[in-house]
Amino acid sequence: MAESDAKVDGFKAAAAQAAVELVKPGMRLGLGTGSTAYHFVEAVGVLVRNGLDVTCVPTSEATRSHAEKLRIPLSSLDETPQLDLTVDGADELDDQLRLIKGGGGALLREKIVATASDRMVVIADASKVSETLGSHPLPVEVVRFGLRATMRLVEALAAEAGCEGDIRLRAGQGDLPFVTDQGNLIVDCAFHKISEPEVLAFALKRVPGVVEHGLFLGLADLAIIAGPGGVKAMRRPGA
Q1: Residues 51 and 97 in one domain
Q2: Residue 18 sits in the same domain as residue 107
Q3: How far is residue 26's CA from residue 83's CA, in Å, rounded to a whole number?
Q4: Is residue 12 marked as binding?
Q5: Residues labelled catalytic
Q6: Known binder of ligand: residue 104?
Q7: Tens digit of each residue's pLDDT (9 = 90 or more) over 135-191
Q8: Are residues 51 and 167 in the same domain?
């Protein structure tokens, strides 16, 4: 790992460790997906080994596998439909705690779990904070049927919402596309600047082939951000 990568990974670990302070005995906890959430799952595993009693719902099969190896008690939203807290990473966030998520391909489950939680806390390194969303491509989960027609309509309605850019099907292994845990595909939209995320979110929901998009609006209550200046907290206005 390069020195700069090691520093960023250290920031991610610091944010995750700060978030673990929010975990209390008996909590029903949503476990996020991705490189920063990985550190949080590791930290929860340490607490469980030390006797903490929690019930956790993973947001992806990768997180489920990780948590199982750490012997973290797991459940599902069918068994535990209401959660106290979900801690997850973000690909990008602004000062209103509007997020872009889905770089790891788990955006649908992540959004379902976050919505089922009383609180969502985001953990990230400082590089993920942006004045305006869009520097990270926006993932959009779509069904396989009518893919090209769906992509054309996403492009057209996004343009009406003031967003234009390259829209590509996410590649997987070899010549195959990336497939989500739900068996769907993802298109990544490089809009570069999303001036009105709420308008774009509404537009994307109008596309029949779109299952879900990676704009998480009004879901995160708190963000724990770690960087060269240390760890700081950001709260959503009005939360």
Answers
A1: yes
A2: yes
A3: 11
A4: no
A5: 110
A6: yes
A7: 999 999 999 999 999 999 999 999 999 999 999 999 999 999 999 999 999 999 999
A8: no
